């Protein structure tokens, strides 16, 4: 098996793991009443961009090799580093879902009996799920030796993050007030101690 094929296989396995983690939370979320919904076209554009850049574009590349014109030589070190980063991201993605439990939602929503979660990975950053997406995007760029596919993942993450995070934090401030403000004062957004 070539290094490039190994990178593609590892990306696909990571994508399957991501879906296996997410699916039960999506099912459970449908059964929990929504008390505040701030879903918007902007929110949906961010989600669509992330799914395109971190899901559809790399899946097409892995399945077909398109666009091969943007390929570059795959390196074993990059694939190993990409796999470590991608699977650490999947682990963090699972932890964030477990911490959120019934509070989790794919869009900007507050659930019935919603609680402010500040333990586990949320003790280090306010948005560890976005941290996991950033790690996945960088891992994708390292695993799949194609400039277009690598940039698509990073662009998809950036669109999701910059279109949503400010609105999400406003919603949390409106819901939790000074408790969320205090939480913001002691944590960074997605990179511990940095940003």
UniProtKB/TrEMBL annotation:
Pfam families: ICMT (PF04140). The chain crosses the membrane at residues 6-25, 45-63, 75-93, 133-163. It is a multi-pass membrane protein. Keywords: Membrane, Methyltransferase, Transferase, Transmembrane, Transmembrane helix. It comes from Mycoplana azooxidifex. GO terms for biological process: methylation. One of its GO terms (cellular component) is membrane. It comes from the Bacteria. Coiled coil: none annotated. This is Protein-S-isoprenylcysteine O-methyltransferase Ste14. One of its GO terms (molecular function) is protein C-terminal S-isoprenylcysteine carboxyl O-methyltransferase activity. It is found in: Membrane. InterPro entries: ICMT_MeTrfase, Isoprenylcys_mtase, Metal_cation-efflux_comp.
């Amino acid at each position: 098996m070539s290094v490039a094929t190994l990178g593609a296989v590892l990306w696909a396995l990571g994508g399957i793991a991501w879906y296996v983690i997410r699916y039960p939370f999506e099912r459970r979320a449908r059964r929990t009443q929504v008390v505040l919904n701030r879903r918007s076209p902007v929110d949906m554009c961010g989600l669509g961009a992330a799914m395109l850049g971190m899901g559809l574009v790399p899946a097409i590349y892995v399945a077909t090799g398109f666009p091969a014109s943007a390929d570059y030589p795959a390196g074993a070190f990059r694939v190993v580093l990409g796999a470590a980063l991608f699977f650490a991201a999947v682990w963090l993605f699972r932890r964030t879902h477990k911490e959120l439990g019934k509070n989790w939602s794919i869009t900007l929503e507050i659930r019935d009996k919603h609680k402010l979660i500040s333990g586990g990975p949320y003790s280090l950053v306010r948005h560890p799920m976005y941290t996991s997406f950033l790690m996945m995007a960088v891992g994708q760029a390292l695993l799949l030796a194609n400039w277009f596919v690598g940039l698509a993942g990073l662009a998809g993450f950036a669109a999701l993050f910059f279109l949503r995070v400010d609105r999400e934090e406003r919603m949390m401030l409106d819901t939790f007030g000074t408790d969320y403000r205090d939480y913001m004062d002691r944590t960074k957004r997605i990179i511990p101690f940095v940003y």
